[in-house]
Amino acid sequence: MSSRSxxxxxxxxSLIYSIIFSFSIVFPTFSKxxxxxxxxxxxxxxxxxxxxxxxxHLVTIGGHHYSIPLPIILYSSDRGIxxxxxxxxxxxxxxxxxxxxxxxxxxxxxxxxxxxxxxxxFSITKNAASMMLGGLIxxxxxxxxxxxxxxxxxxxxxxxxxxxxxxxxxxxxxxAVPNIGEKKADKFLPYLLTLFFFIWINNLLGLIPxxxxxxxxxxxxxVLALLTAIIVNFSGNRHYWGHIFWTxxxxxxxxxxxxxxxxxxxxxxxxxxxxxxxxxxxxGHIVIxxxxxxxxxxxxxxxxxxxxxxxxxxxxxxxxxxxxxAYIFTxxxxxxxxxxxxxxxxxxHAHAEKH
Amino acid sequence: MLLTILLEITGSMSALGAGIGAGLAVIxxxxxxxxxxxRAMESMARQPEMAGRIQTGMLIVAAFVEGAALFAIAVCFLxxxx
Lengths: 355, 82
Prior knowledge:
The complex is a heterodimer of chains A (355) and B (82).
Chain A lengths: L2 H24 L15 H9 L4 E7 L2 E6 L1 E6 L3 E6 L13 E2 L2 E3 L5 E3 L6 E2 L4 H26 L8 H21 L4 H23 L10 H17 L3 H8 L9 H44 L2 H40 L15
Helix pairs in contact in A: 2-8, 3-4, 3-5, 4-5, 4-9, 5-9, 6-8, 6-9, 8-9
Chain B lengths: L1 H9 L2 H34 L4 H31 L1
């Protein structure tokens, strides 16, 4: 053993001991109360960040919240359509009671009628506004790509078109055509492309600071899964429904048992699509926010700097997961559509179905 | 007696169940994704020219396994609420 390695290992040992010792000093700050008398509540902060809201909260400086009030659109049978800004429901300034026109917001951000009336809520909430922003960005990007394609037809693509075209061609050549087949892929390609880029842009918008967690909203993923289910089942041909009600390639006594299994399978496949996207996005946000909460719980640099490094690493991971989940949703949608429009094969052909 | 201690710490039966459920789900995900990764490494070492395609397939299947585990996490979250 040379003297150099001896000093290196003892240096590392002393480093580790000093880190452990400093953590033991940090621990007594755990129960320290904040000056305002309010202890930091990580669960509340996390739920506030991943949930929906009637205003778009930007920053909180010195206890004052800066947020963009969004329009609240309500319909009730006796009063018709009502549109007002969510700023009118906040309990400060001239609106002391936090109540407007018989509606008020409770602590969880739910809108309720003080007179117990029934109303339908069509408000532009933070998630809806973020989805519209995502749609606008997609329109701008792809309209410019389309006009560039027309202008440069026959020549090499330039600018934004050269970045988007390989992605679009990848979805066509490696996602749509292998699963749906060359003849019918073009019919479903607009839907698959929209699915991929819409989910991806919403995942990305959710990751920027002050972004809205749109793809972590179960209603968002529910609608996308519902649209996929409708497209799959309405474009199913005779062979698709024949496979469901009378599964070929299995023994005759097994087929009556396969019938309820396949019928339930019509619903579980889109359901899994919905849950997969929702849970991946929400779980990712919760992990990042929990790591941030460590800084506020311990209130020391020794915890803060590693926590910050972890947050950076987790954010890169979440960027990748956002792209991957958009790709998985698209490829599974293509797979289900392909199963539905598949032409007839000979009996005995090996049948592999994803559930 | 262990149950009483655990109830004391967590405060309610549903929170205890949610925590245990989430932990078990993550064990399943860890085993599954670790197995996928290990076999992918093996096959990439056997046939280096297929490494790109194997890696793509590995990531896709890992996302499916993770989806199953996150399904359990979502259920545990709901159970822990009410």
